[in-house]
Amino acid sequence: HPKIFISHKTEDKPFVNELVRMLEFIIGTDQEKLFCSSIAGYDIKPGREILAELKRQFNDYEIYLIIVHSPRYYESPICLNEMGAAWVLGTKFCSFLTDDCKFSMLKGAIDGKYLSIKVNDNFDTVTSKLNYLKDELLQVFGIENFNQNRWETIRNEFIQRTQNIDYATIIAKEEKNKQPEPRANIVADVISTKPLIVDITNRGDGIAEELKLQLDEAGSGLIITGLDAFPLEYLKPDKHVKLSVYPCISDPEKFKVFFKWTENGVEFSSEDIVVL
After folding, report:
1. pTM of the prediction?
2. Can you list the pairs that 272-275 forms with residues at least 24 positions away whose Cβ atoms lie under 8 Å?
3. Whole-number Å distance between alpha carbons of 14 and 39
4. First vs last Cα of the chain: how many Å apart?
5. What is the pLDDT of residues 41-100, one digit of tens each?
6. Distance of alpha carbon 269 from alpha carbon 214, whole angstroms
7. Helix (H) / strand (E) containing 97
8. Residue 112: in which H helix or E strand, if any?
């Protein structure tokens, strides 16, 4: 039985969501016709081992591979293995490029010399390639009754929506996930509010460096004392230090205090403390 297998990086799920929506219009919503690891209903069933399940998909079905190329795709060994397996097995495939991916980025077994659809390409070019993909899938799955007029709307919505994905946010989340966990854990307790006295403790097992205290805009008229006098000794695990903050231009009733510190050149932030 034919089955579409979408090879992609999890961070590109916003793109894949729109792709699945378009594919469902072409082939329907039968779970036996589509496999996509990040979309509920088309993903790996509970209790099954990931690599074994991927192997089973290629063994049990006539796979039509759809690759979602992105800068993130090439960071995944599993994605590269899927692409390589498809090439070795001679699997039919089609490639998509996310809006932030260039043809020059394509490498590996399936590169830029194969048919690829870039969503922010010339409109006529994109629609022509999507129409070709639709026709090929209709043939692969033996589908005869198809609403061509409705297809043009679904196709154009796919183009528009995938061109408006916020990749800056996706990249920022990816970088945050890559950031190591801090070993230090700077925790602050408010002892009094007038004047503001904060007790700072390192409850982690690592040493914090360059500890900084910051206030939000409501506290911009306050003076902080003691911050520049931090000896490194106070930033070691289980050490305490107290800071006093005095009103200068204004005396706000409510503002936020938070701390930043570095470990091995990586900056971390504490949770906000709301001072009443």
Report:
1. 0.62
2. 273/188, 273/190, 273/198, 275/190, 275/193, 275/196, 275/219
3. 10
4. 65
5. 888 776 566 667 777 888 888 989 899 988 888 888 778 777 777 776 777 888 899 888
6. 10
7. strand 92-97
8. none
